[in-house]
Specification:
CATH architecture: Alpha-Beta Barrel
Radius of gyration: 19 Å
CATH topology: TIM Barrel
Largest sheet: 8 strands, parallel, barrel
Order of helices and strands: EEEHEHEHEHEHEHEHHHEHH
Helix content: 25-40%
CATH class: Alpha Beta
Number of strands: 10
Distance between the termini: 40 Å
Strand order of the largest sheet: 3-4-5-6-7-8-9-10
Structural class: alpha/beta
Number of helices: 11
Number of domains: 1
Strand content: 5-15%
Shape: globular
Length: 332
């Protein structure tokens, strides 16, 4: 397994990481036994970075991951997040000192560990001063409950404001063929400041698996089933919205011969594209079972040529697929 530096933390993480959003129930039911077997398969094959969050089922994901890790917690870099999903707060956001302290204790209890390697703010909270949040996070680190801190989904001015208070060790952002917004500001800043970068949505929430078609029906508990009513979330609308879904499927079909040229499946090719950006420390994938772990490990150990990277761009242009959705990660 390819290991990469995690910014200035001194840690190395696997180029492919295990994302635990799905086990929280957002994509519908996931069989926990198969999930547990996938976690063990991943560790046995050198995947060392596991990412979860309080908001993934409001604790469901953290508890499931803890059960899956069993006595092997020390073998992995464990990342969790707080700050979103609270029904009584505006936009569900809360990064107050009280929330930081309560959430870290709850996450440690659910994860059955004394510390997490990285503790991240899941989404910025516009109603809490960064000074308050970062003072609390610094206290968490000094107490030994987290080794490093990070942010997810922050805009560049917000990151700069936070860096003036305390170093941000790791960030987490969407990055895949259908979402390349971070290359304009965020990734150059992270490269210049040696910040570890975790990519989520590496396979575009399933779009780049090549398994969807025009008749695909998502489970009613799967957020993608709302693809016609995704409100102001531009990214999700430009992936699954009715005005975009068909052209995206056409682009995906056109990518398959490129993957076959390398003797790879489309998910392997797409994940190789995601990890090809040198700023990426680890690209997260949500594995449901051991077979998916084995499949996606085929993304490593080879390179897409410059000509074929350009061919990917041409395919997206030809089919009118969006790669730079308007606005930020959300419009609000």
């Amino acid at each position: 397994m390819e290991q990469r530096p995690f910014g200035q933390t001194g840690l190395s993480v696997s180029a492919i990481g295990f994302g635990c959003w799905e086990i929280g129930g957002t994509y519908g039911a996931v069989d926990e036994t198969r999930f547990q077997n996938a976690v063990r398969q991943a560790m046995d094959h050198g995947i060392t970075c596991f990412d979860t969050a309080e908001a993934y089922g409001m604790g469901v994901s953290e508890e499931a991951l803890s059960r899956a890790l069993g006595g092997r917690r020390s073998e992995v870099t464990l990342v969790t997040k707080f700050g979103v999903g609270y029904a009584d707060k505006p936009k569900g956001r809360d990064s107050t000192r009280g929330r930081v302290m309560a959430s870290i204790e709850a996450s440690l209890r659910r994860l059955r560990t004394d510390y997490v390697d990285v503790y991240m703010i899941h989404w910025p909270d516009p109603n809490t001063p960064f000074e308050e949040t970062f003072a609390a996070l610094d206290e968490v680190v000094r107490q030994g409950k987290a080794r490093f801190i990070g942010v997810s989904n922050f805009q560049l001015p917000q990151i700069e404001a936070c860096m003036a208070l305390r170093r941000i060790d790791v960030v987490q952002y969407a990055w895949n063929m259908f979402d390349r917004r971070m290359r304009t500001e965020i990734f150059p800043y992270c490269a210049a400041n040696d910040i570890g970068v975790m990519a989520y949505g590496s396979l575009a929430y399933g779009m780049l698996t090549g398994t969807f078609n025009a008749d695909t029906a998502f489970d009613e508990n799967d957020w993608r089933s709302r693809r016609g009513t995704l409100g102001t979330l531009n990214l999700f609308r430009t992936l699954f919205g009715p005005d975009y879904f068909g052209r995206n499927l056409a682009a995906v079909e056109a990518l398959k011969p490129l993957a076959a040229k390398y003797g790879k499946t489309l998910p392997q090719f797409a994940l190789r594209w995601t990890t090809a950006n040198p700023v990426i420390s680890t690209a997260l994938v949500g594995f449901r079972d051991p077979a998916e772990v084995t499949e996606n490990l085929g993304a490593l150990g080879w390179t897409i040529s410059d000509a074929d990277m350009a061919a990917v761009d041409a395919i997206f242009q030809t089919h009118g697929a969006t790669t730079m959705p308007a606005g930020w990660l959300e419009d609000a």
